[in-house]
Amino acid sequence: MIKKVLITMTLGALMTTGAMAKEKVDLKYFNETFQGVTVKNISESEIKGIYQVEIEEIAQPIYVSKDGKYMFEGHLIDLVNKESLTDNYAKKMKKAIIDDISEDDMVVYKAKNEKHKITVFTDVDCPYCQMLHKDVKDYNDNGVTVRYMAYPRTGIPSVGYNHLVSVWCSDDKPKALTDAKNGRSVKNATCANSPVSNQFDIGMKLGVQGTPAIFLEDGTMLGGYLPYKQLLMQLDR
């Protein structure tokens, strides 16, 4: 339930909206109910009198009435074109978030003749993450760059978090991640600019619930491991 998710968030106490949005939608009740949530944008939805609200804390739109008394979460479906307008908008939100992340903060296995990129939230000890990592060479050989983001499944602090920090703070991050996923020891390391905690927060915002979580270039999230040939077929559509 969106209420439960939003109320537990404490990423800021200021509610902000654009001037035009304030004129269109009364946010009094929303603001009272979801204290600490930051509204980034409000736009008209395809349903008259219902507005699409984009908030800072999650990459998923919600919907409110013009008078602000009613709200719903879930999918707004276009029955004519047989598509989820909510999913389409969420993909754009997720793409924008991922595009804003520097590859310097990722662990990247770059394809020589790059045709596609996938961004994968990963953990070191996750068996399916280890299976996916064995496919990296096949991905690279087929023109797919694999970009890893850190997502400690057991949260922060945890042993898994410490392992990921050691990888991301290594002098050779690709080698360290490969060693860790193959069960080889990685030198314990920390660094002041480790992005692991921030990437965990980003993963939560994007809706990651487990690893590996694979994002395509358009913001589509694929939940879980896929054999590389199956994923290649999807990328080449």
Shape label: globular
Listing every helix as H and every strand as E from the N terminus to the C terminus, the arrangement reads HHHEEEEEEHEEHHEHHHEEH
Separate helix tally = 10
Residues in helix, %:
25-40%
CATH architecture of the largest domain: 3-Layer(aba) Sandwich
| Beta strand % | 15-25%
Low-pLDDT runs = 1-22
Helix-strand makeup class: alpha+beta
Could you characterize what this model shows?
The chain is an alpha+beta fold. The protein folds into 2 domains: 2-88, Nuclear Transport Factor 2, Chain: A (Roll), CATH 3.10.450; 103-235, Glutaredoxin, CATH 3.40.30. Helix content is 36%, strand content 19%. It has helices at residues 2-7, 19-24, 28-33, 85-99, 127-134, 136-141, 159-168, 173-181, 196-206, 228-235; strands at 39-44, 50-55, 62-65, 71-72, 77-78, 83-84, 107-109, 116-122, 144-150, 213-215, 221-223. Strands 7-9-8-10-11 form a 5-stranded mixed beta sheet. It has a 4-stranded antiparallel beta sheet with strand order 1-2-3-4, with no helix packed on it.
